[in-house]
Amino acid sequence: MSKSLRLGVNIDHVATIRNARGSAYPDPLRAALLAQEAGAEGITAHLREDRRHIRDADIAALRAGIAVPLNFEMAATEEMQAIALATRPHAVCLVPEKREERTTEGGLDVAGDDSRLAAYIAPLRDAGARVSMFIGHDARQIAASARIGAAVVELHTGHYCDLHYEGRFAERDAELEALREGAAYAHSLGLEVHAGHGLTFDTVAPIAAIPEIRELNIGHFLIAEAVFIGLAPAIGEMRRLMDAARA
Asked: Which of 76, 97, 234, 247 would suit a FRET pair with 125, their CA atoms being 20 to 30 Å apart?
């Protein structure tokens, strides 16, 4: 099992700030290039149905402008499939999406929609995209992801992070153990394991230490921390904490 752990930086909320004023800045591509220079091994961007942050032009600019892989997060809709097939990103991560939610609230129900999702991801796979399912640690969802032909599962770490900041440490530790078990099970099925959502300097180390996890995708916290210390230092510190946990 490889000790290497990649860091993908999600730049959605650079676009959130831009869109708050309807201006041309801050530019998500500029943030992606800074993240790349600071050591990010990938860039993640979520093109939502309502275009609340990332927009179509951002995806095109990222695809053309960055040298590291682009991880295109999207809902499993016909519109998004067409955009992904036209854009041909390195990876496509399918996520649940509800118009009224502030951020992604849980994992995708792959087990309850496996036939449709199997057909949905087939052309994406044929086009060369690595297809990932953003799911919880439930064994049924992990097994369904393998069954439909996904290459990757990304485990949702948001509940673990929420429990930490709510001071519910016994529940947090139980959630962490469930994530460990889910990662091991996914790896045993031949899936590559990623993780993300809500991770911070305070919560990243136990997740980074899970040996089966190959990539962490982190965004909101890094963009928030960049307000105070700059994007490159924030990424550098996250990278340091990840490496120390892995060692």
From this structure: 97
Domains of the chain: 6-246 (3.20.20.70)
**Is 215 designated active site?**
no
State pLDDT tens for residues 204-238: 999 999 999 999 999 999 999 999 999 999 999 99
Residue 20 has phi, psi (to 5 degrees) of: -60, -30
> What pTM was estimated for this model as a whole?
0.94
Instruction: Fill in the DSSP letter of residue 33.
Output: H
The neighbouring-strand residues paired with 42 are 8
pLDDT band at residue 104 under the 50/70/90 scheme: low
**CB 44 within 8 Å of CB 93:** yes
Distance CA 79, CA 76 (A): 9
The answer to whether the CB of 103 falls within 8 A of the CB of 135 is no
Q: One of 53, 187, 197, 225 is an active-site residue; which one?
A: 197
User: Is 73 annotated as catalytic?
Assistant: yes
